[in-house]
Design a protein that fits this description.
The protein is α/β, with parallel strands linked by helices. The chain has one domain: Rossmann fold, CATH 3.40.50. It has 3 helices and 8 strands, in the order βαβαββαββββ. The strands form 2 sheets. It has a 5-stranded parallel β-sheet. A 3-stranded antiparallel β-sheet has the order 1-8-7. Helix 1 (about 10-25) packs across helix 2. It is globular, with a radius of gyration of 16 Å. It starts with a strand and ends with a strand.
Length: about 180
């Protein structure tokens, strides 16, 4: 097993998500125009958690969906058969502020693929990005609007977000 360093425990993850939810509420006065879309895999449970927090802040349900970007990636030719996960967006994104949610922002390529995939469902008024971890090393000009924690890493390290919804205790670790 690789050497790993704990970056966030369960309480720190909850604090980061609570802060992100409040920042989303502050930046978007009209909560009824905001929808959340979690990027498969790790962004989906984080999006659902943010949806519950925002429901408590705004006092009304916040539509939440999930988006698979496998077929929109620019590295399809370099990978084995993609592991396609379900996309569930049970609302119209046209004219809405869509907050894309992901666990780790790294090169920016997944977010680019997510924006391409999202266009299949309509034309949002605005797209914002919320991530639990921003580890740097961007290859595309993409920047998160809401960040739980900036974690400088070496290019060779891996950031693992483990969540109870995915069968593990809540934690974020860096593996060397």
């Amino acid at each position: 097993m690789p050497d790993s360093t704990l970056i966030l425990n369960d309480a720190a993850i909850q604090r980061a998500l609570t802060r992100i939810a409040h920042e989303i509420a502050e930046r978007n006065e009209t909560g009824s125009e905001v929808v959340l879309v979690g990027i498969q895999r790790g962004g989906v449970p984080l999006g659902q958690r943010l949806g519950k927090l925002l429901t408590g802040i705004w006092g009304h349900p916040v539509p939440t969906g999930s988006l698979d970007v496998s077929m929109h990636r620019d590295d399809l030719d370099r990978r084995a058969a993609p592991n396609v996960q379900p996309t569930v967006i049970p609302f119209d994104v046209t004219g809405k502020t869509v907050v894309l949610v992901d666990d780790v922002l790294f090169s920016g390529r997944t977010i680019r693929a997510a924006m391409d995939a999202l266009n299949d469902f309509g034309r949002p008024r605005r797209i914002q990005l919320a991530v639990l971890i921003d580890r740097g090393h961007r290859e595309l000009p993409i920047k998160a609007d809401f960040v739980g924690k900036n974690v400088p890493t070496a290019h060779t390290e891996r950031v693992r977000v483990r969540l109870t919804e995915m069968g593990s205790a809540d934690e974020v670790v860096i593996e060397k």
